[in-house]
Design brief:
Elements (H helix, E strand, L loop, with lengths): L7 E6 L4 E7 L8 H16 L5 E6 L11 H8 L9 H12 L5 E5 L2 E3 L1 H8 L2 E4 L4 E3 L13 H9 L1 H10 L3 E2 H7 L4 E2 L5 H13 L18 H18 L5 H15 L1 H15 L3 H15 L19 E4 L3 H12 L4 E4 L3 H20 L5 H8 L2 E4 L10 E4 L5 H14 L5 E4 L6 H4 L9 E6 L8 E6 L5 H13 L3 E6 L6 H17 L4 H11 L5 H8 L1 H14 L9 H7 L12 E3 L5 E3 L3 H12 L5 H4 L3 H21 L6 H12 L8 H8 L1 H15 L7 H9 L7 H7 L1
Parallel strand pairs: 2-3, 3-4, 4-6, 5-7, 6-9, 10-11, 10-13, 11-12, 13-14, 14-15, 16-17
Antiparallel strand pairs: 1-2, 7-8, 15-16, 18-19
Length: 725
């Protein structure tokens, strides 16, 4: 056992003969190994005591349990804790001790019962919930499977089809829906929850209510032939949607064994699979992402100074285009009053119209009521001047990427905004020092870089300059959290973290195509690797205008390591601009469905002759593995530069930025984590080989060369890596 305890349970026995066992492990009462051991000893004591007739399990401070404490997996993987034998928790404790006990138990659920929390509740003989509590099994998104009996009990309580939907999508249901599904026996007001659970437990003990062992129920399971059909369909869908993941199929295997051979065999299969999935590379990656995402808000020298975020009561946004309207939508959805400023009535009307359309799509999908829509829209006010900026706490500039326009705006803002007001820019590439050049209050200038569409994409890059105050960073981190974004704090440079790391991604693809690689094979290989789409499909989606403007920034700033291709400019000359014109690298029908265009060859050939590039027989016959390496190793190289320059505080921040900003597959752990899984030595040797054959674009940076030559991990902090060199 690890020496430091994490959480506990307490037990109180009332005069009514009910023992109330409370799970205590803030903030969500996660089930650490210590909590589970405490629960076991409390339960054994309750069963021994003659004054205990029934048991209620509940969670402290309005939360039942958020599930198994995932840091336990980390302890096992690092070898700091011995893994319990398969089935110790799910069979020995939850099934044979709690569910098979001769005294009944009731789960009193408030707030949430997720993962292992819901699995524990399902082993109780009844579940009473407060309204609105979240009930679900989200384990698959963490790379594991429900391992405390969830694969067996959920199908028996809600039916096989609904159980598979809940498990495979990781989506929870509210208590009210849980009640109609049969997952919850009653929904009562929070103030009455504990008393109602006590009465229910006594009623079971005195046979006034049924004593139900979920794991033995069969009335909601379909006949065997039908169950096999449902499971076959689920497996086929899973293979299509998650071809690179093994654990969802392994989970379905545990469900199937339980239905075919009985719940005991199912529990044993689940226990065996649970011990196997922890060792999968994809599981290690997803657990790394889980902790890294929670670590982005810890910034040394900023968040460890005891600074308290100031209350942001009102935000102004300059520019109502695609980005400005998206940012406004994200803010009003989280109850921030917003002023949207534009240069004229026509643009202002269009900007407000975009926000309205964003919200109306939620109404159409049934995710928002009409009343909530009107209430949210009432938080948005339009403006054509700065007069209404006199009481705002933060301004986010979201105009076109024009440096002199942005400089003028920042100079004007200082005249109208209060002295404490945060001055933020949503620029995606321009140096913030240049934007704030004419501004006296350099400590208030910060980058708030959202990704399009801003109300949907989960990443917020918080860009600090050398002058930005720690207080302003803390304030923006708090806003990011409140608008449900994953904020990553980065330094100021061309492209910041995400765009800079990934500029070689498209450039590498263009480099290969000009030398003979089929663009559609590149897209296919990259999609198969796990990206949402390949680089050419992405160029079509963002539009050639944006692609060229972005590429130009990097060609100007990093001329020694950029690849300048003529393919897109030549296509633009023929009025091809991507998906918007229905012609780019692909042809698009009226439903925006893409299909390859044979005409692309002529643009590639023309670009080749303009650039004086020759066909390379080796590059014309690349395998999928080689395509991935030649496309992503230059990204790893640039990520190493970003890390070495201190643009990112930790390598894990770059992992999260790439996943949430560019769609890098989470089950690969992020760009730096993935690189370390391959090995710095191998990546360095390949880049070195290509740079000798093809030039500076592939040249390994000093940081990668130093670590790669010795095989040191790329994501280790500088001093740690040096100790291994």
């Amino acid at each position: 056992m690890a020496s430091r305890t994490k959480g506990k349970t307490t037990m109180e026995v009332g005069g009514d003969g009910v023992a109330v066992i409370t799970l205590i492990n803030p903030p969500v009462n996660s089930l650490s190994f210590d909590v589970l051991e405490n629960l076991k000893s409390n339960y054994e004591e309750a069963l021994r005591r003659n004054d205990v007739k029934a048991i209620v399990i509940t969670g402290a401070k309005g939360r039942f349990s958020g599930g198994f404490d995932i840091s336990g997996f980390g302890e096992i993987q690092k070898g700091t804790r011995k893994a319990p034998k398969p089935g110790y928790i799910s069979i020995d404790i939850i099934t044979d001790l709690i569910e098979a006990a001769r005294k009944p138990s009731v789960a009193a659920i408030d707030g949430l019962a997720l993962g292992g929390g819901l699995e524990l509740a399902m082993a109780c003989h009844a579940r009473i919930s407060a309204p609105g509590a979240q009930l679900g099994l989200p384990e698959l998104q963490l790379g594991v499977i429900p391992g405390f009996g969830g694969t067996q009990r959920l199908p028996r309580l809600v039916g096989l089809t609904k159980a598979l939907e809940m498990i495979l999508t990781s989506k929870p249901v509210k208590a009210e829906q849980g009640h109609s599904l049969g997952l919850v026996d009653a929904v009562v007001p929070p103030a009455e929850l504990l008393n109602a659970a006590r009465r229910w437990a006594l009623d079971i003990a005195e046979r006034r209510k049924p004593w139900v062992c979920s794991v033995l129920k069969t009335d909601k399971l379909p006949p065997l032939g039908e169950a096999r059909e449902i499971l076959k369909f689920a497996k086929d869908q899973t293979r299509k949607q998650a071809p690179n993941l093994k654990h969802p199929l392994m989970c379905l295997e545990a469900v199937e064994v339980g239905i075919v051979s009985g719940s005991r065999a199912g529990l044993e299969k689940e226990a065996l699979i649970s011990s196997q999935v922890v060792k999968l590379d994809t599981t290690k990656s997803l657990i790394h992402v889980f902790f890294s995402q929670r670590g982005t808000t810890k910034v040394p020298g900023v968040t460890d100074r005891g600074l308290v975020p100031r209350k942001i009561k009102k935000v102004a946004i300059i520019g109502g285009g695609l980005m400005g309207s998206g940012i406004a939508t994200a803010l009003i959805l989280s109850n921030y009053p917003v002023i949207l400023k534009e240069v004229n009535e026509k643009f202002l009307e269009a900007g407000i119209g975009r926000v309205k359309a964003n919200l109306q799509s939620s109404v159409k999908k049934g995710r928002m009521s009409q009343e909530k829509f009107e209430q949210t829209m009432s938080l948005l006010k339009g403006s054509l001047d700065y007069e209404s900026f006199r009481d705002v706490d933060m301004v986010i500039e979201a105009v076109i990427e024009n440096i002199s326009l942005k400089q003028q705006i920042f100079a004007d803002l200082e005249k109208y905004c209060p002295q404490h007001c945060i001055l933020a820019s949503n620029t995606s590439t321009i140096d913030l020092n240049k934007i704030g050049e004419r501004t006296k209050s350099q400590d208030r200038v910060i980058g708030a870089h959202f990704f399009s569409p801003a109300h949907v994409m989960p990443l917020l890059e918080i860009v600090r300059t050398n002058h930005t105050s720690a207080q302003v960073i803390v304030d923006l981190l708090d806003v990011g959290k409140k608008i449900k974004k994953t904020p990553v704090v980065v330094g100021n440079c061309t492209g910041f973290a995400v765009n800079r790391m990934f500029f070689p991604y498209t450039q590498a693809a263009m480099f290969l195509v000009e030398r003979g690689t089929d663009p559609y094979l590149i897209d296919k290989a990259v999609s198969k690797f796990g990206m949402p789409m390949g680089p050419f499909r992405l160029c079509d989606l963002v539009g050639f205008g944006v692609a060229i403007a972005t590429a130009t920034q990097f060609i100007e700033n990093f001329p020694e390591r950029t690849n300048k291709s003529m393919i897109i400019p030549l296509m633009q000359e023929d009025k091809r601009a991507g998906e918007a014109t229905r012609k780019g690298f692909y042809l698009y029908d009226e439903k925006r469905k893409a299909k390859p265009d044979p005409e692309i060859k002529k643009y590639i050939e023309k670009a080749r002759s303009v650039s004086g590039v020759n066909l390379d027989p080796k590059l014309a016959k690349l395998t999928e593995k080689e395509i991935i390496e030649m496309t992503f190793f230059p990204v790893v190289n640039e990520a190493c530069r970003v890390f070495a320059e201190g643009i990112a505080v930790k390598a894990a921040d770059l992992d999260i930025a790439g996943i949430f900003g560019m769609g890098f597959p989470p089950y690969r752990g992020g760009i730096m984590f993935w690189a370390d899984s391959i090995g710095s030595k191998y990546i360095y040797s390949k880049l070195d080989e290509w740079s000798k054959a093809y030039g500076g674009f592939f040249k390994p940076c000093d940081f990668l060369a130093e670590r790669g030559s010795k095989g040191a991990p790329l994501s280790a902090p500088l001093e740690q890596a040096r100790s291994r060199l």
